[in-house]
Design a protein that fits this description.
Blueprint (H helix, E strand, L loop, with lengths): L9 E5 L7 H11 L3 E5 L2 H4 L3 H9 L11 H15 L3 E6 L5 H4 L9 H24 L3 E11 L13 H23 L2 E7 L5 H4 L4 H10 L8 H12 L10 E4 L10 H5 L5
Parallel strand pairs: 1-2, 1-3, 3-4, 4-5, 5-6
Bound molecules: nicotinamide-adenine-dinucleotide.
């Protein structure tokens, strides 16, 4: 059921790689809620061709941009203003990748070139996007920016490796920009901290299956599906949340504040 929450709004959505992607679900819901938007992803993601399906279904143009490349971002925001006929009311940052995690390098044996890449792709890219967007006048006053994060920024999950550091940086960048954009243009900037989700980025993490089950058993509502994460993002893009900014908002079925559940404790009974 649609509510018209984004009726008349314009946006920019990054990170839709395939139907499992959280950004894909955000794009589908934003379309259903009445928004017009452009899609963007790394040029390499275009080769997979999946995004074309989403573009066709939502009527959104696709503007390739590597989020670590300032020239690409400059072009992205200039073109988005042209396509949308003005600045965007919302921006989704749904980008993450760690070469160390992908290639199984543990935290105590990191490749530092890859570590820099992890931080650049997964965190600095938000800074780069906002800086480029502001210079291009591509964000409208009263707008909303959401970036996706994970609770490993607050607590240790060993297999999340250097992505934990990237998420901590991402959340800090969110506050720093949120302060500035709030004062200058009443633009809010938040992170949504999502449950483990079966996507390309998620399942690239060692032991993801076991961990997914653990989080499921530790969350009173169970793991939050991607489509519900999208719903939460839509509320943050809407006018119903105009005073929510600089927050890290958990969308995790209650995982972040649960200490123990009978299912998990039962595994240790008699141990
Ligand atoms: N899946 C999970 O369990 C989970 C949990 C919490 C948070 N998140 C976060 O959600 C976000 C989206 O991930 P997802 O789970 O939908 O997986 P996904 O693999 O579908 O999305 C990740 C996206 O990042 C894009 N990307 C990578 N490098 C890029 C670059 N240089 N420039 C531009 N785009 C680039 C990829 O092309 C892809 O579209 C990420 O920030 C991820 O860390 C995921």
């Amino acid at each position: 059921m649609a509510y018209g929450l984004l009726s008349g709004k314009r946006g920019i959505i990054s990170g839709a790689l395939n139907e499992q992607s959280i950004a894909w679900k955000v794009a589908e819901l934003a379309h259903a809620e009445g928004a017009r938007f452009v899609l963007t992803n790394a040029p390499v993601a275009m080769r997979m061709g999946e995004i074309k399906k989403l573009a066709d279904a939502t009527g959104a143009p696709v503007i390739p941009a590597d989020a670590t490349n300032d020239a690409d971002l400059e072009k992205l925001f200039a073109e988005s203003v042209k396509h949308l006929g003005g600045p965007a009311d919302f921006l989704l940052h749904s980008i993450g990748m760690s070469p160390n995690v992908r290639k199984g390098r543990p935290y105590d044996d990191l490749n530092y070139d890859w570590y820099k890449q992890t931080l650049d792709v997964s965190a600095m890219s938000l800074h780069r996007m906002l800086q480029a967007a502001e210079k291009a006048g591509a964000l409208a006053p009263g707008g909303s920016v959401v970036a996706l994060t994970y609770i490993a920024a607050q607590r240790v999950f060993p297999d999340y490796g250097d992505m934990a550091d990237a998420k901590a940086l991402l959340e800090s960048i969110t506050r720093s920009w949120g302060y500035r954009l709030g004062r200058s243009k009443r633009i809010r900037v938040n992170t949504v901290s999502q449950s483990p989700t079966m996507t390309t980025a998620g399942s690239g993490i060692k032991g993801f299956d076991g961990f997914y089950g653990f989080a499921q058993a530790m969350s009173p509502l169970g793991n939050a599906p991607a489509v519900d994460c999208a719903g939460y993002c839509i509320t943050l893009f809407s006018d119903l949340t105009r005073y929510v900014t600089m927050q890290n908002l958990y969308h995790d079925g209650g995982f972040s504040t649960t200490g123990a559940t009978p299912e998990v404790v039962a595994k240790f009974s008699g141990a």
